Amino acid sequence: TQLLEQSPQFLSIQEGENLTVYCNSSSVFSSLQWYRQEPGEGPVLLVTVVTGGEVKKLKRLTFQFGDARKDSSLHITAAQPGDTGLYLCAGALAYNTDKLIFGTGTRLQVFP
Amino acid sequence: NAGVTQTPKFQVLKTGQSMTLQCAQDMNHEYMSWYRQDPGMGLRLIHYSVGAGITDQGEVPNGYNVSRSTTEDFPLRLLSAAPSQTSVYFCASKLAGLNTGELFFGEGSRLTVL
């Protein structure tokens, strides 16, 4: 089993719909990041959250870090085809911040 | 601006063969790491380094060796390749000691072991 589990694994929706991706763990993280990856490329950072309960907004994307710093969510409002990609959460463990652990990934497809 | 450069991009090996995946970065990052990506499993950390001469194991280190003789380079060695090592490998770097630092990735190396 992996330290960071994401759900759902796959998401296929129509343009304009809202969605939420979850990232859960039993471990505590000092910070949590969300990356997006497109085919044939490496992941690219979207956001970093560091404080329990923190909420960050990036245009139509809203990121939340759980109060206990064990989980996070990514909410997309009015999804667009350009949001299509693989979304990955990544956490820096509280007891070893140099070890950045990635989640299992959520593959999102948004149809026009 | 090169960033993180991985070579080769594609490689086919036979079981038991050895090879080295090269990784170089020009951003003067102390932290470098190797991940493998398999369907449904996201990215799994193989080995990482926080500076020249320092390496440590990640989540799935078995079958892989690393060394860090310079800040710029962090090669990943497969001493005796197995079909289970078929995967896409990513090298990534960032500033060390900063748990909020952005991880910069190479474009990946697709390895097939027959």
Furnish the topology, listing elements before pairings.
The complex is a heterodimer of chains A (112) and B (114).
Chain A lengths: L4 E3 L2 E5 L4 E6 L4 E9 L6 E6 L5 E4 L2 E5 L5 E6 L8 E9 L6 E3 L3 E6 L1
Parallel strand pairs in A: 2-11
Antiparallel strand pairs in A: 1-3, 3-8, 4-5, 4-9, 6-7, 7-8, 9-10, 9-11
Chain B lengths: L3 E4 L2 E4 L5 E7 L5 E7 L5 E9 L2 E4 L6 E3 L9 E3 L8 E8 L9 E2 L3 E5 L1
Parallel strand pairs in B: 2-11
Antiparallel strand pairs in B: 1-3, 3-8, 4-5, 4-9, 5-6, 7-8, 9-10, 9-11
Radius of gyration of chain B: 13 Å
Biggest sheet details of chain B: 7 strands, mixed
Largest interface: A-B, 29 and 28 residues
Number of helices of chain A: 0
General form of chain A:
globular
What letter string, H or E per element, gives the SSE order of chain B?
EEEEEEEEEEE
Q: Please give the count of helices of chain B.
A: 0
Helix content of chain B: under 10%
Distance between the termini of chain A: 35 Å
- Name the assembly state: heterodimer
Query: Strand tally of chain A, please?
Result: 11
Low-confidence stretches of chain A: none
Number of strands of chain B: 11
Proportion in helices of chain A: under 10%
Q: End-to-end distance of chain B, in Å? A: 36 Å
State the secondary-structure class of chain A. Answer: mainly beta
Order of helices and strands of chain A: EEEEEEEEEEE
Query: Which structural category fits the helices and strands of chain B?
Result: mainly beta
Largest sheet of chain A: 6 strands, mixed
> Can you give the mean pLDDT of chain A?
93
CA-atom Rg of chain A in angstroms: 13 Å
